[in-house]
Amino acid sequence: MRTPLKLADAHPGPAFPVTLDGREIEALPGQTVAAALWAAGVTSWRTTRGEGRPRGVFCGIGVCFDCLVTVNDRPNQRACLVPLHPGDAIRTQEGTGHDD
Amino acid sequence: MTDLAVIGAGPAGLAAALAAAARGVRVAIVDSATEAGGQFYRQPASGLRSRRPQALHHQWRTWERLRDGLAGSGARFAVQFLTEHHVWSVERDSDGFTVHALLGPEQRESVAVRADAVLLATGGYERVLPFPGWTLPGVVTAGGAQAMLKGGLVVPGRTAVVAGTGPLLLPVATGLAAAGVEVAALVEAAGPKDLVRHGRALVGKLPEGAGYAARLLRHRVRLLSRHTVVRAHGDDRLTGVTVAALDTRGRVRPGTERYLPCDTLAVGHGMLPHTDLAETLGCRLDGLTVAVDDEQRTDVPGVWAAGESTGIGGAALALAEGHIAGRSIAARLRGSEPDPAQWASAAKARTRLRKSAAALDAAYPPPAHWSDQVTDDTLVCRCEEVTAGAVREAVDELGAGDVRTVKLLTRAGMGWCQGRVCGPAVAGLAGCELTPSRRPFARPVPLGVLARQHDMATEKGTS
């Protein structure tokens, strides 16, 4: 099967664990929150303030702010920009992220 | 203090930095990313240790030259490269410029870079016009899908439809296919005749187009030209799209709708330039782009601009413009008049590439009647969750005739993205031209940072 990692002949260091809402997932060195979540098959990690609708990556380059997420208790981080570190705790952000 | 601050490490910024540094200018490049390259040459994160990043790229040799130049420029002063610096404002005062940048992914602290001259090479971002279902997870911008692939070596799903209009769709479709995604269709609003009509100015681009055609064929990607996505389906994530044929006037032909199952839709309708910094500096804009002269100078002394911010035209044009800007800056900072004969070949390339950019722009207009598909319950402003119905009410019943009034009545454009995403759609629904939005800052800035700026300014004033 073709994969992006094979296409670019990538040999990353060992994957490390992070958590999404308490569930353990793996991330590769250098990957952003959004990249690790996509690799884990997750495409939404926020619900909107008004209608509570799910959102994830849209622009992928930090312009649209749709991919906001809570990382290590800090809400409103752009998942497409923030790199992950071992043990980081990602949480689905509900609304403004300041209510819980 | 440096001689020149280059804002943006894409093709334009790098070409300018290298040209200036080679002529003795002290250069600091300021960029928000962790690696140089900008969007076009976005590199895989270094931790992913890719041995073949060129598999995701075009014109790799050019990138190697830029990268090697940056690494060991051979210039009198090494180019200083400031990564993860998110520039939010550039101020001009009596003795130069202050570039204000938020640091790192946290963006809680701001630093100031002082320079005698500034080159704005801020690039562009994608325009996406709304349609029902476009806020579902799984719907991403075409450029976003490409950025995540190039930078993170990830893809959004298993089966994708790539749709919209413009030359970006081809590399996105072939890139996703090469990375293992089944690309169910490339849905392009322009028809083959639209391209032929502008063929003369596109002569240089046609071999490139033929290469993509071969790759589409190899990956068995179906090309649906003169088609559009009319709806994205799904409850909590994308499960498929309905596409339909367009008639010669750009209206959906009734009865041609068909459903394509997919978990990813990569969609885009061309590019828009980032001009916020130029606007706050007071640079004259020509429509949506920064106006520059033959040397790439803006009308504000000490401020040059190159690349997409001066008109969407692609990486090769950005390189030519950046090179010219760098040489002009080197001469002007020495107080001498530059000799345009020295950059004659770059100027020739610039003329030719601007012509083909204009032809591409004409060949790939946004679908003329896109708003016909936008139902009243479709969100237009993704941040503030403002529907098309609310925007139409503001226009039809409350008399709003421009984007600003619609914003005041509906909050469309008041959210995190500051109207960058919904601006074109709101303007279209209001029946007016998209105009520069005159944002005071180029990105959201924490209030604490602004308060500290004020304190510092006050201290300076009283001491």
Structure, described:
The complex is a heterodimer of chains A (about 100) and B (about 475). Chain A has helices at about 5, 35-40, and strands spanning about 15-20, 25, 45, 55, 70, 75-80, 90, 95. The mean pLDDT of chain A is about 95. Chain A has 2 helices and 8 strands. A 5-stranded mixed sheet of chain A has the order 2-1-7-5-6, covered by helices on one side. Chain A has a 3-stranded mixed sheet with strand order 4-3-8, with no helix packed on it. Chain B has 3 domains: about 1-125 and about 270-340, FAD/NAD(P)-binding domain (3-Layer(bba) Sandwich); about 130-270, FAD/NAD(P)-binding domain (3-Layer(bba) Sandwich); about 375-430, Orthogonal Bundle (Arc Repressor Mutant, subunit A). Chain B has helices at about 10-20, 60-70, 140-150, 170-180, 190-195, 205-220, 275-280, 315-335, 345-365, 390-395, 405-410, 425-430, 445-460, and strands at about 1-5, 25-30, 80, 85-95, 95-105, 110-120, 125, 140, 160-165, 180-190, 225, 225-235, 240-245, 260, 265-270, 270-275, 285, 290, 305, 380, 385. In chain B, β12 and β13 form a beta hairpin. The interface between A and B is large, with 49 and 53 residues.
